[in-house]
Amino acid sequence: MICWRLLCVLLVLSSIHADPDTVESKVDPIITCYVSTWATYRPVGGKFDFSNVVPSLCSHLVYAFVGINPEDSSIKVLDPWNDLEDNGGKGAFQKYIQLRNVNKKLKVSLAVGGWNEGSANYSVMAASPVRRKTFISSAVKMLREHGFDGLDLDWEYPTKRGGNAADRENFVLLVKELRQAFDNESHSSGRRWLLTSAIGASPDVIRSAYDLRSLSQHLDYLHIMSYDYHGAWEPVAGVNAPLRGQSDEDELSVEKTLELLLSSGAKKEKLLLGLPFYGHTFIASNVNEKPKLGSMTLKEGFSGPFTKEKGFMGYNEICAELERNASYWSISWDERSSTHYAVRDTHLISYDDPKSIERKVRFGMKKNIAGMMVWSLDTDDFLGDCEKTTGYSKFPLLRTINKAVTAALQEREHELAKNKKDHVKKNNSSRIKLNLKIMFPVLLIHQHVTF
What is the pTM of this model? Predict the structure, then answer.
């Protein structure tokens, strides 16, 4: 009788598993950093090259840009003197790739396209099987020859700016064939290349340009260009990258972009939310008016001392200006968009800073997306000129992202561990009850037989 009772106890105990206190595996933060390589030609104070990069702050670097040869659709180097080592060139390709020696996990990809490339060359190439093959062959050759870890497609945008309606389907064909070619290369070399794409954030572009369900099957990551929602090209001052729009119906916001992408078939585990390291500038059309968001403005904004582009200022230019001339600027926080704007006379700047960047990171990570993307490293405060304001010696925006993403991932891990622990407890309780139900009649039978 004692043996039977002992057997029952052992059976019950065998159904109980140890409660997990930690998650079995941790996910490294995904923080993809674009570098606009023409920043090497900026004046002292804004000049940026590989030596300014802190490799530990990025999981992926994207070298922007190479272009498309309109004659045959092969990939072409746009700045041989800067990119290559030939004929006394600066060899920036290799210098950025060698940053992997500092961060062994770092992946360095090559971006093809960009705003200046436009859409027409991509459209012509993607529409032709022959031209797609040429493009893909040249991509494989370039990645292999220079040692890049992947290719980033920056087509701005399918079906727009000289493209046509067939671009949507042809883009999928291009991505699918690239993925197959990269997989074939992986089988022979043992090295898997990344395939990513920058995608537009406006609802019009998303709906017309992308078959997101199909693209998500073949791309490793989709880099959401969730900025440039408003700028000096509009007649009123607006927010560059609003977390939320000015009304619930306003679709031009980070929130609405993510909602639309996810509802349109994009896989959340492949989405990277784009964060701007720059702001847009405006000049009020009424010289007697102190501008605010929504004020009527001129067609062109003002420029910064380094980037020298009207309507645009890098964060490094903005924070330095606001710190240097603090008494002239009035800084306000717009709660709806979760961004700052600064006003001086007829001038207004809409920009992101560590506070607004952290809010966007928190918002995106709560949606369980893969991580963040930044445009671009060269306009963060990479020299630490604004340390008094930001509290960081260098790269305040990028460091804010790292801190916020890491915190969000830790919260995910704790939540996962808690859910797993609760699930195990619930299952153990059910098993114990079931085993007791099974063994109780056995005990009764045994006792009956014994007596």
Answer: 0.89
